[in-house]
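ok new one. same drill as before - structure tokens go in, u give me an amino acid for every spot. 70 of them this time. try not to just spam alanines like last time pls lmao
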């Protein structure tokens, strides 16, 4: 059984490596995390409008989670 890694997987791996690298050098990882979230959302959705609504929806505190199954 072969598994193909998509662009999302590779972007995720790169940003995890960057975050670990920044943590080892004792630098702030906030900006790297934000850029990673936006880039992953942009690649996943494919449009800026969907990107904005996805990020705003997911980053709002105290909102009930959407249930996709019953």
């Amino acid at each position: 059984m072969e598994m193909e890694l998509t662009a999302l997987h590779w972007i995720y791996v790169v940003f995890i490596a960057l975050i670990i690298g920044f943590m080892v050098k004792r630098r702030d990882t906030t900006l790297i995390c934000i850029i990673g979230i936006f880039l992953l959302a942009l690649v996943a959705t494919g449009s800026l409008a969907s990107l904005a609504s996805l990020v705003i929806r997911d980053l709002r505190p105290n909102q009930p989670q959407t249930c996709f199954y019953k």
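The mean pLDDT is 83. and btw Helices lie at 7-24, 30-45, 48-59.
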